[in-house]
Design a protein that fits this description.
Blueprint: H1 21-34, H2 62-75, H3 83-94, H4 100-112, H5 117-124, H6 134-138
Helix pairs in contact: 1-2, 3-4
């Protein structure tokens, strides 16, 4: 289901977390943001460590993590950018920064929103992907 992602060994094991509520907040919030299961891996298969941008959240409290996700919910809110435009803007950022986990996660989100592998590859190469409408091309 998930693309192969090479990860470094966990530096933030959940059992060492000051507050194990952070993982529960992520577990509860990602399905809300993505309207179903997250289309990417965010925790190790054995559940012992959070991965990618979520890893440092295991060193915070559940309250702080909840506030982080309040901001994330705003970014994914229907009141903000249209989902495809949001993902195309993130794709533009991914074309200029070296962030493999970000590419991994947002490629899956883009696919869920109807972006093709070719469009994603074109965007990563710094080109405006083909077959977008005018608004999406501006993102």
């Amino acid at each position: 289901m998930f693309a192969k992602l090479v990860l470094i060994p966990p530096r933030f094991p959940i059992h060492e977390a000051p507050d194990d509520a952070a993982k529960k907040v992520i577990e509860d919030t990602l399905p809300i943001i993505h309207h179903g299961p997250a289309p990417f891996k965010w925790v190790e298969d054995d559940g012992t460590s959070l991965i990618g941008c979520y890893a440092p959240l295991s060193c915070t409290t559940g309250h702080w993590t909840q506030q982080f996700f309040e901001l994330a919910k705003l970014c994914y809110s229907p009141m903000g950018a249209k989902p495809r435009s949001r993902e195309l803007a993130i794709l533009g950022l991914c074309s200029i920064v070296n962030a493999p986990y970000m590419v991994y996660c947002h490629r899956a989100i883009g696919t869920k929103l109807g972006l093709t592998a070719e469009q994603y590859d074109e965007g990563l190469a710094g080109q405006v992907p083909r077959d977008l409408n005018e608004e999406e091309s501006m993102a």
